[in-house]
Structure to design on (105 residues):
C-alpha cells in the first residue's frame, strides 16, 4: 500500500495528549505504523554520561501512531484526508480530499 504520510509532511495530531498540535514529520517507521513528529509527544529520557554526551535528563520526541495524524491541507492548513490519483504525466500523486490540491510537487 502506498504511504499516505511521508517525511517532511506538515501534520496535525488528532487524538491523544498532544491533540491539536502541529509539526513536521522527521521520520516514518513504516513497519511499526508510527512516525516521529517535531515538537510532538515529548518524553524525558534519563541517559548515562558517555564520551560524547554529558548525560542527564533529555527531552526528545517519541513515535506517535500514524492513525492519530492527519496531513495539513496545502490550501488553508486544516486537517484533511489523503487520496491518490494519476497526474497528467502518468505519475501517481497524493492529493488533499478537502480541497483537491495536489500534495506531491
Amino acid at each position: 500500500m502506498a504511504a499516505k504520510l511521508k517525511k517532511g509532511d506538515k501534520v496535525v495530531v488528532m487524538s491523544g495528549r498532544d491533540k491539536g498540535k502541529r509539526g513536521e514529520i522527521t521520520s516514518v517507521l513504516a513497519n511499526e505504523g508510527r512516525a516521529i513528529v517535531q515538537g510532538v509527544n515529548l518524553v524525558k529520557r534519563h541517559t548515562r554520561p558517555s564520551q560524547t554526551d554529558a548525560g542527564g535528563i533529555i527531552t526528545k520526541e517519541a513515535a506517535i501512531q500514524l492513525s492519530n495524524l492527519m496531513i495539513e491541507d496545502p490550501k488553508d492548513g486544516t486537517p484533511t484526508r489523503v487520496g491518490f490519483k494519476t497526474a497528467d504525466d502518468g505519475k501517481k500523486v497524493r492529493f488533499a480530499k478537502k480541497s483537491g490540491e495536489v500534495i506531491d510537487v
